[in-house]
TrEMBL record:
The keyword Ligase does not apply. GO terms for biological process: small molecule metabolic process. Pfam families: HAD_2. It comes from the Bacteria. PANTHER family: GLYCERALDEHYDE 3-PHOSPHATE PHOSPHATASE, N-ACYLNEURAMINATE-9-PHOSPHATASE. This is Putative hydrolase of the HAD superfamily. Gene3D superfamilies: 1.10.150.520, HAD superfamily/HAD-like (3.40.50.1000). Its cofactor is Mg(2+). InterPro entries: HAD-like_hydrolase (IPR051400), HAD-like_sf (IPR036412), HAD-SF_hydro_IA (IPR006439), HAD_2 (IPR041492), HAD_sf (IPR023214).
Amino acid sequence: MIKAIVFDLDDTLYSEKDFVYGAFEIVSEFIANKKNLESKFIFEQMMKTLDAHGRGKIFDIVCDENSIDIPIDDLVEVYRNAKPKISLFVESLEILKFLKKEGYKTGIITDGISIVQWNKIKQLDIKTYVDNIIVTGDFGDGFSKPNTKSFIEMARLFNVKPCEIIYVGDNPNKDFIGAREIGYKTVQIKNKYSEYGDLQLEKKYGPDYIIYNLLDLILILQEIKK
């Protein structure tokens, strides 16, 4: 019997791109104010660099190409403390309300730097709808998914057996391996925001179910009850 449903956060319950773009806008405004530049121009440079090189060295490249002499650490700090406007997917809110109404316990396990993830959680106002939240960064280095620590801890917080929990995520590289190892049921959400829709793993590492809309969880819960 399933008693709890746990979700990944980024690109499962909301679009991470909304956060990234919003945070880059905030960093662009910071640079513009420091260097008397147009924030729109800086933001466009960031978007161009993002498309060409990804997020890893975006501040280094933009600053180097535009002769901006601001310490990169300062820009990283602005980014990590950014609180852009973001919102849950409509279906995320609907499924969380449904689960609460039906008496299921709900939670979130999310990877990332603690302050960034907690800022996202605050901006999404998601604490209203879930019982427990774990940011793996709070454990220190080395405990990101698929490490089993967060999954074990969530089961402890719920006071339920791992086999009584469903975990929903979008990234097969990390969302299902650790969860399945300790006995969770797993569900992959393949939506238009996920980068991992075509990624295939060995059956023993892949999800138990695949859905294309979070509301399809209702059908899975009904099937498991039979």
